[in-house]
# Entry
Amino acid sequence: MEENENTIENCDKFVKNLNSKLEEGAEPRYYTARVTGTGFDDSSDFVRLRTETFDCAVDVQNYYALQEFESDLKYGGTKYCTVVYDEKEEKILMYQLPKEDWYICHVSQINEVWEEKKRLIKEEKQKQIKQIEERRPKEGKEYYLCPVNTDEGAGYEKYAGYDYIRLTQQSGKGTPVVFEEITGCGYHNTYHIRMTECNYSGYNYFSCSGEGWVYLAQKKNASVFKISYSDDTGIDIRIEGSAGGGYLKAHLGKGRTWLLSDRQYNAGDLYTLIPVE
# Structure
């Protein structure tokens, strides 16, 4: 879409009028500027401006004005993207708006809206952190490992000389497990999972076979499991290390529901940890 010449002409007249009111001999303070893009960094949102003599970037605290710029740029930038740049204040003046709203960074009410938005974002982040901490396994604590929205918990069953992990069909039951956090392994939120009971002494740690079946092995052969908190209620459990890439999912086979890890899964089942009272 072509530039609206009337918009630039009006802006130039407006800028000339503002500069004419400066003290005699003062350098020009106001410039006709074009919004050429938007961006953000760790501390603020900003717009990029271009005048006849220089380019610059200006922080914008007005979230709604930023949206207007982004929307206008998408459709050619003929409505709001020609502005006045106040070089002394390093701020944008939108001469199309009522005078009391010219400076989009100065209007106290706008700043209050922006501060409220940042406050809500901070509160939501703190809420998420609290939820994660509440779901994070506690050291030495026993839990029932249960898929979300099911009546089954993780247990074990002897098969071909090993204990394999399967789901029971008793609400809130199964065999308690303990999550033993691993440090210094190069991964975050990683654990060995130890089952508190087993058929073979010393073989009580979750391990993943090459075919993806989860069975109980000695600690030296235990798999590394990574927990992520992508849901408000449950946790994802993923295998890391040499057997990495697979999420834990329930798999029906031979009349039982077994836990299986397979790299073909882009996401696993969600699990909840029910503390053993």
Summary: The CA atoms of residues 158 and 164 lie 6 Å apart.
